[in-house]
Design goal:
Layout (H helix, E strand, L loop, with lengths): L1 H23 L4 H20 L6 H25 L7 H18 L1 H5 L14 E14 L8 E11 L5 E7 L10 H9 L3 E6 L6 E3 L5 E3 L2 H13 L2 H32 L3 H4 L1 E11 L1 H12 L5 E5 L7 E5 L2 E4 L8 E6 L7 H5 L5 H7 L4 E6 L10 H4 L1 H7 L6 H20 L12
Helix pairs in contact: 1-4, 2-3, 6-15, 8-10
Length: 431
């Protein structure tokens, strides 16, 4: 809201000054300087009062208004108010000013000031960031012989005790905090949540040492548009490679956490109940969690948030894919939007049943949940935090905040049932 108000006022005043200048054929430097410097002062006061939040959002426009105001004063002092002889030049200057307003506020446009998604639990939340190097694996995305590093963001209750562990895996070209609200909701209800970052699969990862790694461009292109430009057989090779990278990351992170927890090495690890472990993830992260659930016998439940179960694919041909017919061994919750059937799946699977639906149908402890009027990005925080960016990747018509809050409630309820042995499970088939 504030971004729109600020831009609307600035653009309106710029248009107003333009019209006044052209009608009077005078520059009005004094009033322009007063308006711009006054606007900068007002925005500064609003930030100091906490009305405007986030220096990174508004620093650019504050600096620009101050500079433009000073330039107007210098022009007034040097040349005084002048007659406008070239209206076209004045018009282009005004257009340029409005373009500058938009440019310096791009961060506020992409990430407008919004109310934080509130948690519903009673536990105060602490966070910790760890980066571990897996000495058993070389980093295949780099040619420098380095070992692969995995960064994990922990959310856990401040209150001492032992709590179930929930590992989270983000989607392709996403970030480890893409479901920050889900992680916090779980932690507020008594869970230790470990959000695992997959370097080069994430848009960016800033590790515990402050080093940032960006997404691999080839991976990003293939994950976004590969099925449209490659055969099913070719994509199956990539899917297996991606699943191995991610499940290796998750295995390494989980084994490291369990080792530290057994020794109570730090406060966060002293909170972990190693006997109760769940996995959840969005998009490709959900697929990786589902695949890991078949590999380990210490996982109690898995939740997939609109992620095609790539680990279940066993073969491919021109007509589509085949997949594992063995019943999934542990409780599995598959959550999808009602747009999933029309989101390119018919092209990939042809007349065959979508892999997720088949796995759920043939597994005794699996269930399917569908969200009406939703789309792929509605299962993470992005539509709330950045509606413009989320819209590029697919959002539904339902309210984004209501949708993710409902998702968070379902994740909590499912894990409460399977990790805390609560008998009640009232999850519906459709929301």
């Amino acid at each position: 809201m504030w971004t729109k108000i600020i831009l609307s006022v600035l653009v309106a005043m710029e248009i107003g000054f333009l019209g006044w200048d052209l009608l009077s054929k005078t520059t009005h430097y004094r009033l322009k300087a007063a308006f711009r410097l006054g606007a900068a002062v007002i925005l500064t006061l609003l930030m100091l009062l906490g009305v405007l939040q986030g220096i990174s959002r508004y620093a650019g426009i504050l600096a620009l208004l101050a500079v433009m105001g000073i330039v107007s004063l210098l022009s007034l002092r040097k040349k005084g108010e002048r007659e406008i002889n070239k209206p076209a030049r004045r018009i282009w200057r005004s257009i340029g000013s409005m373009a500058l307003y938009m440019t310096v506020m791009i961060l506020a446009i992409l990430f407008p000031q919004v109310e934080e998604i509130a948690v519903t639990g009673d536990y105060a939340i602490q966070t910790e960031l760890y980066t571990w190097k897996d000495e058993s694996r070389e980093e295949t995305f780099a040619d420098n012989g380095e070992k692969r590093s995995v960064t994990v963001q922990f959310y856990y209750p401040e209150t001492a005790g032992r709590y179930p562990l929930a590992l989270y895996s983000h989607g392709a070209a996403s970030t480890m905090d893409a479901n920050d609200s889900t992680c916090r909701e779980l932690a507020s209800h008594g869970y230790v949540v470990a959000a695992v970052a997959h370097p080069y699969h994430a848009m960016f990862v800033t590790d515990a040492n402050g080093v940032t790694t960006s997404v691999d461009s080839e991976f990003m292109q293939l994950s976004m548009s590969g099925p449209l430009t490659h055969t099913n057989e070719e994509m199956l090779v990539y899917y297996r490679e991606w699943m191995k990278t991610r499940t290796d990351d998750l295995n390494f992170a989980l084994d490291t956490i369990l080792t530290h927890a057994a020794r109570n090495d730090a406060e966060v690890f002293a909170r972990v109940d190693i006997e109760h472990i769940g996995l959840f993830g969005h998009s490709m992260g959900g697929a990786a969690c589902e695949a890991l659930g078949r590999q380990r016998d210490d996982i109690d439940a898995v939740i997939v948030l609109e992620g095609m179960m790539l680990g279940e694919l066993t073969g491919a041909d021109k007509t589509g894919f085949t997949y594992d017919s063995t019943p999934y061994p542990i409780p599995l919750l598959d959550v999808n939007s009602d747009s999933i059937a029309s989101h390119g799946m018919k092209q990939m699977f042809g007349s065959r049943e979508y892999v997720n639906f088949s796995i759920v149908k043939h597994s005794a402890e699996a269930r399917e949940v569908t969200f009406r009027d939703a789309a792929h990005m509605n299962f993470c925080d992005l539509p709330v935090l950045s509606p413009p960016l989320a819209g590029m990747f697919g959002v539904g018509s339902r309210d984004p905040r209501e949708c993710i809050e409902t998702v968070n409630g379902i994740v909590l309820e499912y894990f409460d049932h399977d990790l805390k042995n609560q008998t009640s499970l009232a999850i519906q088939e459709e929301y």
